[in-house]
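Before surveying the methods themselves, it helps to consider a single example record, giving the amino acid sequence and backbone structure tokens:
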Amino acid sequence: MSKILVIEDESAIRRVLVKILAEENDNYSVHEAENGLEGIEAVKKEDFDLVLCDIKMPKMDGVEVLEAAKKIKPEIPFIMISGHGDLDTAVNTMRLGAFDYISKPPDLNRLLTTVRNALDRKELVVENKILKKKVSKNYEMIGESDEIGTIKDMIEKVAPTDARVLITGSNGTGKELVAHWVHQKSPRSSAPFIEVNCAAIPSELIESELFGHVKGAFTSAVKDRAGKFEAANKGTIFLDEIGDMSLSAQAKVLRALQENKISRVGSDKDIKVDVRVLAATNKDLKKEIEDGKFREDLYHRLAVILIKVPALNDRRDDIPLLIEHFSQKIASEQGTAQKSFSKKALELLKGYDWTGNVRELRNVVERLIILGGKEVSEEDVKLFASK
């Protein structure tokens, strides 16, 4: 049920608004306030889905109510009620965050349409917040070891900036997770996060993938196509396994970082982009530079901040926490009850050599949940988690 608050000092207009809304939809629970001060107290005490608020009122006018309410509960949509002489003020309230305004006397169709649209918008905002929380949780770093604590501290400091970050570590350690977390905690979190796996794209196609191409640039270029940098505009691009990128593509990436502009393959027209670049590699880039396979100037552009993700073998105390996390996640995905692991099973798993890191541990946990008993035992580990 949608809770609507009507703040209006003229009792006749207030009664009309309440009557119209109550009769329009059985799912509208309509509440009243006779002035702005009463309205603010109601907003503090209850969670409303929508507020209709008059502009000209004694004690506290509608503009003051709007500003105060947005500080308390910024997600509540406001529809302002304006007299003929209040139109300029009504327009100004939209700059302050009001959803819309309606004039007195209210037109029935306009009023109901605006109310429905405002409630739909509120529902969408709530859904987006829930989704964002779920996304953030999916990319949460699990662990209480000193190594993970150091990474979390670095992310808290780095994420609010636009500094470029180079993430290093072995395969399966969670480099992608770090990149997602930096983006989610940054001011760009509502903008696109575009991932590019440089190792998975053939060298002859990587430039087109990153920067786009124009029609006729090469045989299969049948139409103009935007690249990943354009898609990531105002957001973040994550260049995974950047050590596998061709030298010619590296030169173009360097230009994009230096000048904040790119050009599509086959075109000499510059396109300005505003993109934060995060990169990751499992290679020793300094060794790659010595071997002439990676540009030193690009390395220094990318490695403003260096985050090294430790191997799982270097943070074994986090293994029980990771097993608990994966058990919950797998049970949720499969719609089954979560399985527990015996202490001896956990100790045995802590002693394994995890060459595949966290990715390998996740696979082993899933295998044990499927094949093991009601509680995963030491015997289950010996039978099903063997290398």
The mean pLDDT is 90. The chain has three domains: 2-135, 139-310, 313-384.
